[in-house]
Amino acid sequence: MIVAFFFYVFAAILLVSAAAVVSSRNPVHSVLFLILAFFNAAALFLIAGAEFLAMILLIVYVGAVAVLFLFVVMMLDVNFAELRGGFQRYLPIGATVGVVLLVELALVLGGWKFAPDAMSLRFAPVPEATHNTAALGDLIYTQYVFLFQAAGLVLLVAMIGAIVLTLRDRQTSRHQSIERQHARRPADTLAMVSVPLGVGMAEVSVPPPPAPPARRLAHADGHADGHADPHDAGAAHGGGHHDGGGH
Questions:
Q1: Cα distance between residue 55 and residue 22, in whole Å
Q2: Are 21 and 30 in contact (CB under 8 A)?
Q3: DSSP string covering 207-222, please?
């Protein structure tokens, strides 16, 4: 009696949260309702005795997929008011697709029926030597191994497609030069200065560090081509002021 009560409670919350996922205007609220639906589905799996599926639903879908959905929705900052502006224009196409899907679901459910011995399997004794996780793994990796691999390939293609569609190579971003970092010496970037007592750093003339060999070569090429590096030019300008201050 208690199990049946909790089953109907979790099932009702699952149906309400699933309906809220597709009816919420705020996408962040939709993702939160999706997480609630996952939790209630995991509770139903626990009631059915499939503890492995319940843990996988919480760890994979709630801990990774739903969090990824929430991160993407909040990061993209999509203007949903602008997206809803063309709702009436695309309403006939959307209604047509919805009707086609509804007819397909009706055909599938209309031709579906229980196996003759499906009801009797509910009362079959559960083997004590094999637990739920081992039985599920044995079924997936023996009878449905090719379908399992095919599903993995489909997910791999979807992941590659998402990466290709969202990849943006911005030329204005700064790039890291590993070779220059490895070739850099402490003397190229650090300068040891002896500051007397009572004298601030603003009153001490600090010479600029010498340019590394790679930059010296680029500086030499730039002067040879008539194009000077602005950073090197600034360093030379600063060095001129330092010499002037010394004089």
A1: 25
A2: yes
A3: PPPPPPHHHHHHHHHH
Looking up tokens 């979790």 gives 10
- Sign for the CA dihedral angle at 227, 229, 234, 240 comes to negative
Question: pTM of the prediction?
Answer: 0.51
Mention every residue, 6+ apart, whose C-beta is less than 8 A from residue 1. none
Backbone angles phi, psi at 212, to 5 degrees: -65, 165
Is residue 211 within 8 Å of residue 219, measured between CB atoms?
yes
Phi, psi (degrees; rounded to nearest 5) at 77:
55, 55
> Distance (Å, rounded) from C-alpha 222 to C-alpha 233?
11
pLDDT in tens, 191-217: 777 777 877 766 767 666 566 555 444
**3-class secondary structure, 128:** coil
Supply the DSSP symbol for 112.
-
For residue 39 the two structure tokens come to 């939790």
Contact in structure between 45 and 51 (CB atoms under 8 Å)? yes
Residue 237 has pLDDT above 50, yes or no: no
From 1.10.287.110, 1.20.120.1200, 3.40.390.10, 1.20.1260.10, which CATH number describes the 1-78 domain? Answer: 1.20.120.1200
User: 174-193: per-residue pLDDT in tens?
Assistant: 777 888 888 888 877 777 77
Which two structure tokens, joined as six digits, stand for 10? 């979790």
Q: How far is CA 183 from CA 45, 134, 204, 208, in A?
A: 58, 55, 29, 19
